[in-house]
Amino acid sequence: MDRLITDFEKEVKVTALSESAIAVHFGNEIDVEVHKKVKAFAAHLEKDPFKGLKEIVPAFTTVTVFYDPLSILPFSKGESPSSIVCATLKEIALNLKKADEQKSRLIEIPVCYGGAYGPDLEYVAEYNRLTPDQVVDIHSSGEYLVYMIGFAPGFPYLGGMSEKIATPRKEQPRMEIPKGSVGIAGKQTGVYSISTPGGWQLIGKTPLDLFFKDQTPPSLLQSGDVIRFKPITEAEYNQYREDSKWL
Fold first, then answer.
1. What values do phi and psi take at 126, rounded to 5?
2. pTM of the shown model
3. Residue 206 burial (CB < 10 Å; 0-12/13-18/19+)?
4. pLDDT at residue number 216
5. Per-residue pLDDT, 101
């Protein structure tokens, strides 16, 4: 049987969060296989929504489903809308097919590393007993999976960074980090989509805009995308800002 979820029944859990929200759990750990199930489940609901569905919010290991309970009519006396939707969602989750999986987009993000663009690059190198060039080589040689968008509009939570450059957050967060800043926090790396306070170690900056408030969808990146970072010079960074040649 061509099911995406076979021996996964015990890990699929459906929890009612309120009278209009239900969370479907696909596991307890952040990994690629769980992410595929999250993506496939969300894609299925987007393609074939049930009556009353209002919004789908994918996360690392869960998909939260918001619905209109008044649109869900009980099939028998005493059957609540919540129980009906829970049963429907679990059935969908347990019968996902591999055909529901989505192909990943590969997106290249140019980054100017170090200097004023990455003031913490030297610290990250020193912490890991590497040279700044080695940090850049390691950071830009990997591929990163976008698990989810959150924290700030358009901010990608990425997986796949090498532990060779893992570095703790700053003890004293900055009051403002410029949008486009590329940082490291523990075993994670990410790109600040808007200017916001934060404690990540900044190693570079991209001239790409990741968030467009007047577009639909507003985020350049989406869950399931694969990212590669490409080192560029300061001159190339400035040229991009002038003519958007990297878009």
1. -65, -40
2. 0.72
3. buried
4. 75
5. 56
H/E segment holding residue 20: none
Question: Do 131 and 142 form a contact (C-beta atoms < 8 A)?
Answer: no
Q: Which among 81, 47, 84, 86 is positioned nearest to 65, based on CA atoms?
A: 86
Instruction: Give the tens place of pLDDT for each residue, 153-191.
Output: 888 989 889 999 999 999 999 999 999 999 999 999 999
Return the pLDDT at 200. 96
Going by the DSSP 8-state scheme, the letter that residue 67 receives in this structure is: E
* Alpha-carbon gap, residue 91 to 15, rounded angstroms: 14
**First vs last Cα of the chain: how many Å apart?**
43
**C-alpha angle 147/31/89, rounded to 5°?**
75
Question: For residue 211, how many other CB atoms are within 10 A of its CB?
Answer: 18
**Residue stretches of the chain with pLDDT short of 50:** 1-8, 99, 246-247
Helix/strand/coil for 15: strand
Distances (CA, A) of 152 to 58, 145, 218, 245: 15, 18, 12, 26
Predicted confidence (pLDDT) per residue in 4-22, tens digit: 444 445 578 999 999 899 9
Cα–Cα distance between 238 and 112 in angstroms, integer? Answer: 10
The amino acid at 183: G
Task: Name the DSSP class of 32.
Answer: H
Cβ contacts of 98 within 8 Å, gap of 6 or more: 2, 4, 40
Q: Is 42 exposed, middle or buried (0-12, 13-18, 19+ CB in 10 A)?
A: buried
Q: Residue 223 has what DSSP assignment? A: T
Model pLDDT, residue 77 = 60
Amino acid 106 reads L
Provide the β-strand partners of residue 174: 198
